Amino acid sequence: MMTYIVRRAGYTVAVLFGVNLLTFVLFFAVNTPDDQARLQLGRRVTAEAIERWKAEHGYDRPLFFNSAATGAARLTDTVFFNTSRRAMNFDFGRTNEGVNIGEEIRQRVVPSLLIGAQVFVLAIGAAVLLALGLALFRATNLDAVGVALLVAMMSISTLFYIIVGQFVVGRVLQLAPVSGFAPGSRAEAFLVLPIIVLVLSYLGPEARLFRTIFLEELGKDYVRTARAKGLSEWLVMGRHVLRNSLIPIVTSSGTLLPAVITSTIVTETFFAIPGLGNFTIEGITQQDFGIVRAMVFVGSVLYVLSYLIVDLVYTMVDPRIRLH
């Protein structure tokens, strides 16, 4: 078991290093520090001002290899090494306005996690229950209506759910605030509507996928054996079909987790929630490369960690996976 965990953790570190290298190339090799300085200071800027800006941000060294240094400093006294080292410590420097990016991320991660965690649990739970119900009443009018409803939900954009939710729930019924956020115990009141919107947007595709998985399992021999033993259809579905469907369900759930985090970019913007998604939009609109680079790195960390968690959950669902 420990060997399996170490191997998967090694893969995660390798992937994270590759993402960091690719991100650095995009932000520094393609768009050089000189270009970033001109973008921030203006096109008609002197060479002295550019060098001063680069020195203030730590970009006045060579990118990958410092030929002027000696020994290990040829690799360590570079922009790539220094930015990578700081990123591993979640030190991303400051924004164009002088705000500490790392501290801002630590403050904004709370509302994003509150949304993402609840959406993930509710979406997966509702999708499993709905899919089990449709598979139980397969080939009936209820199943046909349910599948049609799921396809319709898959075809509707998240923006539609946001607009309708804000108008109906927020303005007409006045059951929840339309936008904004309050810390502490009042936070949930502002998160109810965004959570409902995201759950509805993910319920269609997830429930339809799980229904297909359950129907495939229902045609296997062990299900016929369970029925022959006199087990009720409810027990067959809950005790056998669901248990043997956990591997594809966990796989789909692993891809949903980072997707939920990514989708909060749009949701937080429309609901004015000061989370990581809103912070990313601010960095893009203000052309603040420090914010964008930091959010790309944080997003990649969340992605690889989610897949590492999925790999570990696999071993709980099917211990045979530890041998591979």
How would you characterize this protein structure?
- The protein is an all-alpha fold and 324 residues long.
- It folds into 2 domains: 2-88, no CATH class; 108-323, MetI-like fold.
- It contains 14 helices and no strands.
- α8 (158-172) crosses α9 (187-218), α10 packs antiparallel against α11 and α13 runs antiparallel to α14 (289-317).
- The protein is globular, with a radius of gyration of 25 Å.
- The chain starts with a helix and ends in a 7-residue tail after the last helix.
- The model has no long low-confidence stretch (mean pLDDT 82).
Present the secondary structure layout.
Blueprint: H1 2-30, H2 33-41, H3 47-57, H4 73-76, H5 79-88, H6 101-136, H7 141-155, H8 158-172, H9 187-218, H10 221-228, H11 233-244, H12 246-271, H13 276-285, H14 289-317
Write the CATH architecture name of the largest domain: Orthogonal Bundle
Helix content: over 70%
- Into which percentage range does the β-strand content fall? under 5%
**Biggest β-sheet description:** none
Integer tally of domains: 2
The geometry reads as globular
What is the radius of gyration?
25 Å
Summed up:
With 324 residues, the protein is mainly alpha-helical. The chain is 76% helix and 0% strand.
Top keywords for this entry?
globular, 76% helix, MetI-like fold, single chain, 2 domains, 324 residues, mainly alpha
